[in-house]
Write a structure and sequence with these properties.
Number of helices: 17
Strand content: 15-25%
Helix content: 25-40%
Number of strands: 22
Largest sheet: 6 strands, parallel
Radius of gyration: 24 Å
CATH class of the largest domain: Alpha Beta
Length: about 475
């Protein structure tokens, strides 16, 4: 179903939402949307000048006004920097605020409250994007559902998603990311969750929070902001998540393989590069086939099933939603080339836990064939980076991987961990992405399985692209 009815904004509402000052223009102006993109904005929208790490939206005010846009939200101290002829046009509404990023979030909160939609908010160290897509597929079987796009999970992306709520939306499924303390708390304040989900808690973003205790505390910020009559959906298999569950005053549903889980799975087995399992709800069971590999994907599916159950969906609707799932680009996408080589693209991101899951998936999929692992750095681990990369090397040496290719600043550390665990040095290749592709194209043979994984900043998908291009030529 497509949303078709935007909720307009009056200048008065924009002032109320942001607490800003009307620097020019009048209160009668109405806008049909909010934009931060000077390239795509249309005249009926109001422009917010966001100052980011690499650009300052205030620099594009002239471009926006040239397009006929009649409204601006800017940092108040930037008003004097606007071109005088444009600043003096009385028809231009200009709202001054102290911080435009905060104003964007405040506008999203105002919009969320005036909409008819309820909110499901998801956080966790792994699986947020996949889980968000699975939940949207399940919830969308009955309700008109809005879902985050791509990695819209920070203090800019999440508000932009909420601002897309239209009159027909009944639920919004949102992803909450984090790289510093307080970020999930702020995102939760903006979206006011009716349902909050923690997929798992592992060693990710340690650079920003300093320790595993910091990660646990940061993820727990979500639980404090769920509505009093809301529900927390928690992973019963994750001991760190279960620690947080001990002090929750709201209703909790558990999902997982544990005996403590309300929504669980049994009889899990691989089939046709996917996963079959029996979904167990409190009073019903149903067979499920996921069109994606990896046992860990079952955990994501269980959280989605828990969301569907919480919203009152039938077991048939939950099954249809799960079985309609298509893998997110860069998340366990399996490609078979004309040369008979299977490539697993898991390049979306990486941390120690997801690296381990990738190793398990490669071992599972390759069976008795030869498995090759191509690893890039895991970023944002701070002082733990060296020890975590060494641990990954140790695990790779134990994972029945025939050859290991490594690139990045910590490649030698990963290699040292693998060698110490007994991996033959001749089976380890360190080099640039270009070097790795060149060596792979000379060493791969039909039947080989290749897993490619690394943090987003490592752009490991370039290796997948080159291998796919080579693999389809003979």
């Amino acid at each position: 179903m497509q949303a078709t009815h935007k909720i307009p904004w009056t200048t008065t509402e924009i002032l109320e939402a942001t607490g800003g000052d009307l620097l020019s223009g009048d209160l009668d102006r109405i806008f049909d949307g909010i934009s931060i993109d000077s390239r795509r904005i249309t005249p009926p929208e109001i422009f917010i000048g966001i100052k980011g790490n690499t650009y300052d939206g205030h620099s594009f005010v002239s471009d926006v006004l040239d397009k006929g846009v009649g409204g601006l939200v800017i940092n108040g101290d930037k008003f004097g920097d606007l071109p005088p002829p444009q600043r003096m046009k009385k028809r231009i509404v200009c709202v001054g605020v102290q911080n435009t990023i905060k104003a964007l979030g405040d506008l999203a909160l105002f919009h969320r409250r005036r909409s008819n939609a309820s909110v499901i908010a998801i956080t966790g160290s792994n699986g947020k994007t996949t889980t968000r897509k699975m939940i949207a597929g399940v919830v969308g079987q009955r309700f008109v559902t809005l879902s985050s796009r791509g990695s819209y999970n920070n203090e800019i992306g999440l508000p932009l998603t909420l601002l897309n709520l239209e009159k027909c939306h009944q639920w919004a499924v949102l992803e909450l990311g984090m790289n510093h303390p307080g970020e999930i708390e702020r995102l939760s304040e903006i979206c006011v969750p009716d349902v909050g989900i923690i997929t798992n808690i592992g060693p990710a973003h340690l650079e920003g929070v300093g320790s595993m205790a910091g990660v646990i505390s940061a993820k727990g910020e979500l639980l404090k902001k769920i509505k009093a009559d809301g529900t927390a959906l928690l992973n019963a298999d994750d001991r760190r998540v279960m620690r947080l569950a001990e002090h929750i005053p709201i209703k909790v549903l558990f999902f997982g393989f544990s005996g403590k889980a309300d929504i669980s799975a049994r009889s899990v087995k691989g089939k046709d590069q996917g996963i079959d399992f029996t979904l167990c709800l409190p009073k019903e069971t149903v067979p499920i086939h996921l069109r994606t590999p990896g046992r860990f994907m079952v955990s994501n599916a269980l959280s989605a099933a828990a969301a569907g159950y919480r919203l009152g969906l039938s077991v048939e609707e939950i099954k249809a939603g799960l079985e309609s799932f298509q893998p997110v680009q860069g998340r366990m996408n399996v490609f078979r080339t004309a040369r008979g080589i299977q490539i697993i693209d898991d390049t979306y991101n990486a941390n120690p836990d997801s690296m381990k899951a990738a190793m398990d998936t490669l071992r599972f999929l390759k069976g008795k064939k030869r498995g090759v692992f191509v690893a890039g750095d895991m970023l944002e681990l701070g002082e733990f980076a060296e020890s975590m990369h060494r641990m990954v090397g140790t695990l790779l040496a134990k994972s029945d991987t025939a050859k290991l290719y490594i690139t990045g600043d910590f490649a030698k550390v990963v290699a040292a961990g693998a060698k110490k665990q007994g991996m033959d040095a001749s089976h380890i290749f360190i080099g640039s992405k270009k070097d790795i592709v060149e060596d792979l194209t000379h060493s791969l043979v039909p039947g080989d399985w290749v897993m490619v994984k690394g943090s987003r900043g490592m752009a490991m998908e370039k290796i997948v692209e080159k291998l796919m291009k080579w693999g389809e030529t003979r």
